[in-house]
Design brief:
The chain is about 5% helix and about 35% strand. By secondary structure, it is mainly beta. The chain has 2 domains: about 50 residues, Rubrerythrin, domain 2 (Single Sheet); about 70 residues, OB fold (Dihydrolipoamide Acetyltransferase, E2P), CATH 2.40.50. The strands form 2 sheets. The protein has a 5-stranded antiparallel beta sheet, with no helix packed on it. Strands 2-1-3 form a 3-stranded antiparallel beta sheet.
Length: about 130
Amino acid sequence: MKEENLPSIKELEEYVRQGKLMGFKCKKCGHKEVTPFVYCPRCGSSEVEVVELPKTGKVVTYTIQWVAPERFLNEVPYAWCVVELDDGTMVSGWIPFISKPEDLPIGQKVRMVKSYKPGVYFEKVKE
C-alpha cells in the first residue's frame, strides 16, 4: 500500500467514533498493529492493507489516572490500559471509573464501545 492510500489520523479517529477499530496488516507475514505503517516493522514488506480489528480482548496492563484533561473530567478516575485483542493485536485505550486494582483485574475481558470521547473506549465484559 502506498503512503497516499493510507487513511489519515482524522479518518482513523472517525472509525473509532463509529465503533470500528481499524488497523494495518502486512499481507506477507500477517503482522497487525493499530499504528499506521507503510513498511512492515517485522519483515519490511510494503504489502500492507487496512483491516478491521476485533472489538474484544483482555487487559494486559494499566495505570489509574486521577488527574485528567478537561474532556475526561466526568470519567475520573479512569484506567489507561493496554488491551490484547482477540487476534493478538495490542491497542491502548481507556476505561472510566476505575479507582483501584480490584476494579480491573489483569486479564479482564473488555470490549470497545462507540464514544464521542477521544481515544479507544473500552468497557468491562461481564462473565
